[in-house]
Amino acid sequence: MKIAVAGTGYVGLVTGTCLAKIGHTVFCVDKEASKIAQLRRGESPIYEPGLEAEIVEAKDAGRLHFTTDYAVAYRQAEVIMIGVATPENTDGSANLQALYQVCEQIATSITSPTLVVVKSTVPIGTNDRLAAYFDQLLGDSRKSWVEVASNPEFLSQGTALRDTLQAERIVIGTESQEAADILTEIYTPFDQPILKMNRRSAEMVKYASNDFLALKISFVNDIANLCEAVGADIDEVTSGMGADSRIGSRFLAPGIGYGGSCFPKDTKALHWLAEEAGYTLKTIRAAIDVNEKQRFKLMQAARKDIPLFAGKKIAVLGATFKPGTDDLREAPSIPNLQMLLNEGADVHVYDPVGLPNLENVFGSRLHYGESVASVLQGADACFIFTEWAVFKEMDLALFHTMREPRVYDGRNCFSVKAAEQAGLQYYSIGRARVGGAVFA
Ligand code: UGA
């Protein structure tokens, strides 16, 4: 099938590449000429393990094309998928400007009936509104030319290819059997369970899934904080909870809160949408509030030991919102780095892939290290914000190159026992402190 994909961010690019991999002819469209030029050279503009190789393979096979010329791409396509960003407005609602712009471009480009599939995360009712908008844009002569379907995306950054090629479910929200049949045909080669429902339900599946996972993380962080106060160990607690298959062990890792371009935005968007509808989602409100506070857990603990950060050398390991990505959007590291700098600390950061993006945010205010060892040397304290494998596997003796081996670990990279054996002063989330005397 001939498919156009609008937007070459995580959703659009991974979807387009995977659809080309299974045999469809795909035209990826983006308004950013530099991105398209990069993709035409076979380079991925985003850091995503394995993606570049798949782009090159599908491109060389003649099935994956990149263009800024939306009119040509949309005119040729039997199906147009939209994967543009729907960022957060200042009031927490979703900003649909890019989505509406693409719809206007589609309406001016198509010369025959077309199925438009919305993969972007959009508030419930958006697909219905888009269907009406298309009718208005297309006028009487082309009325009903566009059928709109909702097909939310569930891929995670860092595992995007696997999540798409081996998805646990494909959700199709349509109001027409014909649209459902076309989407079923597109996805059949993936051999994954396809769930068909109406458009509003499909839109809600996406928000409810992300918000449930965010809630699960905030819940476990709440329990971790209580574990610290009452002397329980969150690792032991989550191993006991996760063994119950009704709960499950995934997304039970405590830490300094969830970040990224999805959970923070989608929790706020659903909460906002519910308020607009006259209903308060108390559970989601609580998840958001817990997450806001959780981001500052390490600083709170560190302040008891280091009342003034001014002039102190602070080592920071990890900046991205999670391992496996160079993305810093809503990363808990950012407000913490900001605070350390505001208080006059001399901050040295190492992250395996996130430093170029970090430099775009902080410029010369931070020192960017080439290795774990280079930032730890002579530091007064070390903060860990991301659980990269290279940190989890490091030789803990390296912390003894610091002025004091004082480690604040926001992602529980080491076991309490290992920290004890290595002679560290160690604070982690929801577990016993090591070298307790230092922590007043
Ligand atoms: C998330 C969802 O997991 C995807 O299913 C969804 O498709 C995607 O959003 C989206 O809407 O596009 P992603 O934002 O890439 O994917 O990252 P996650 O792996 O879900 O992690 C989000 C945040 O939660 C990270 O900051 C991570 O460190 C944190 N987290 C995750 C925890 O603190 N504890 C956990 O146990 C798991």
From TrEMBL:
InterPro entries: 6-PGluconate_DH-like_C_sf, NAD(P)-bd_dom_sf, UDP-Glc/GDP-Man, UDP-Glc/GDP-Man_DH_C, UDP-Glc/GDP-Man_DH_C_sf, UDP-Glc/GDP-Man_DH_dimer, UDP-Glc/GDP-Man_DH_N, UDPglc_DH_bac. Its EC number is 1.1.1.22. It is an enzyme of class 1 (oxidoreductase). Keywords: NAD, Oxidoreductase. One of its GO terms (molecular function) is NAD binding. NCBIfam families: NDP-sugDHase (TIGR03026). This is UDP-glucose 6-dehydrogenase. The lineage of its organism: Bacteria, Bacillati, Bacillota, Bacilli, Bacillales.
